[in-house]
Fold this sequence. Notes:
By secondary structure, this protein is α+β, with helices and mostly antiparallel strands. It folds into 3 domains: about 5-135, Elongation Factor Tu (Ef-tu), domain 3, CATH 2.40.30.200; about 150-250; about 260-305, LysM domain (Membrane-bound Lytic Murein Transglycosylase D, Chain A, Roll). It contains 7 helices and 11 strands. It has helices at about 80-90, 155-165, 175-190, 195-215, 235-255, 270-280, 285-290, and strands at about 10-15, 20, 25-30, 35-40, 45-55, 55-65, 95-100, 105-115, 125-135, 260-265, 305. A hairpin with a 7-residue loop joins strand 8 and strand 9 (about 125-135). Helix 2 runs antiparallel to helix 3 and helix 4 packs antiparallel against helix 5. The termini are far apart.
Amino acid sequence: MTTFESYPVASWKVGKLAALRFPVLSISESGGNRIVQRERPYRNGAKLDDTGSKAKSWTIKVCFENSIVEPGLDTTKLLYPDVLNELIASFDTHECGDLTLPTRGKVRARAESYTRDEVTEERDGAALSFTFVADNEDSVGAQQFEQRTANASARTLSEQTVFSAAQEGVWDASLSDINEFASELEGFANFPGDTVADVDSQASIVIGACNRVGRAFARENEENRNMINDPELSQTQRKLEETKDVSGRIRGEAMAGRPRPVPYNVFADTDLFDIAARIGQLAESLIAINPNVDPLYVPAGTVVQVLEF
Length: 309
């Protein structure tokens, strides 16, 4: 017996529906890693950060024709049109199910899309191409969840803040800024290496945007505006305060255990590379915390930031 003959028949079971077995013409699998490329000034190439695996997906091509005989197929049903129609109808269940692939075995997946082809010349048969995407929802138990870090909360919390404001009938242009600023802060915070100064600056920007929204809605005698003064009544106010708190914690997490920037007076024309060599620090670190300084020319009288030493 060949290896191929030992493979299980392909099947799909979702919800309370019985397992549907079908013959396979071909299977295409796709996947990979989520790679974030971070380019830094004055540095060749990019720093690559692997943020996890992409969702695996399988595109399966099947021929539904009643003359097909294969071990494991359900002989009580016609492949065409019974199994074909039931398989397409299963897409409306909208649940995670068990997909058994001959060369892969059982995987948890969701039905994503399908294409059904029938032509007049080939009656009593149809070709179906459908795609399933791996679902990790059922494989992650509650005990596997850890308390979310501040880094992972900023953008979600800012979106909740905007939603609360819309629900309460209040709005300010700075609300949309919070979403954008918090998203950037989360990006910096998740890759803190040489971006501590960026995290510090962006956290201040988010907190400032929250303060602007608070002041805008604190104006008295304007319809709906004074409701934000009462935290017991205003979900928006609470979310604003939580967003500020999370931003502050992100800044603290990024700075924890790292030397803080301190001012350094330059008395003669030089460059950041010479300063770094003189004080025994990495030029890349000085470039990162001095974004507005030309690293190749620092004139006398300039005050630059260096790491505390």
